[in-house]
Design brief:
This protein has a single domain, classed as Maf protein, CATH 3.90.950. The radius of gyration is 16 Å and the shape is globular. The longest helix has 16 residues. It has about 190 residues and is α/β, with parallel strands linked by helices. Helix 1 packs across helix 6. Strand 5 and strand 6 form a beta hairpin. The termini are close together. It has 6 helices and 7 strands.
Length: about 190
């Protein structure tokens, strides 16, 4: 089986995917092509467009992953804007917005878009429910990992070793669905 290409410039995300792929005997490689993201509130639309645009440039099958943190008391904010919000206000900003709110329920959602050589798009989704911690904890992971505690655990994603996070995370769930389909399809 040839390598599977992943369009991302986020090495932490790539390493998460690589760790999961190795358990399936799949070799993945980072693909250095632009990732075009449309402005949309739907992760499926964002990932689909980015995968199609990248496939048209690279002319090879590839995957793109997009994810977001959806906070219940903020009507799903930051959602599809998570990366932008993280860059602008960060973890401290989200914690400040949540100050005094008792409802800290949230979920992370990941969408993996696979673009085939004939530019068909197939989507795989993973969701993990949990809550936002009162303060940032842990130094592993990236993004909002230090404030997200998945249901059934007391640790934030940033307090977990990579294997534990991959077992519980939205990205891990979506990527495992993709890998099972990919292995059985090719």
């Amino acid at each position: 089986m040839s390598a599977l290409y992943v369009v991302t410039s986020n090495y932490s995300k790539f390493n998460e995917l690589k760790s999961i792929a190795s358990k399936y005997g799949v070799n993945i490689e980072m693909l250095d092509v632009p990732k075009f993201e449309i402005q949309h509130d739907d992760l499926e639309a964002i990932a689909s467009y980015a995968a199609l645009a990248a496939a048209l440039i690279a002319r090879k099958p590839l995957i793109v992953e997009d994810s977001g943190l959806f906070i219940e008391s903020l009507n799903g904010f930051p959602g599809a804007l998570s990366s932008y919000v993280y860059k602008k206000i960060g973890i401290a900003g989200i914690l400040k917005v949540l100050e005094g709110l008792s409802n800290r329920r949230a979920y992370f959602k990941s969408v993996i878009a696979y673009a085939s050589i004939d530019y068909n798009i197939k989507l795989f989704t993973g969701v993990v429910y949990g809550r936002i911690s009162e303060k940032a904890r842990g130094s592993n992971g990236f993004g909002f990992d230090p404030i997200f505690i998945p249901d059934g655990d007391t640790r934030t994603f940033a307090e977990m070793e990579l294997e534990d996070k991959n077992r519980l995370s939205h990205r891990g769930a979506a990527f495992r669905k993709f890998l099972e389909w990919f292995i059985n399809s090719f």
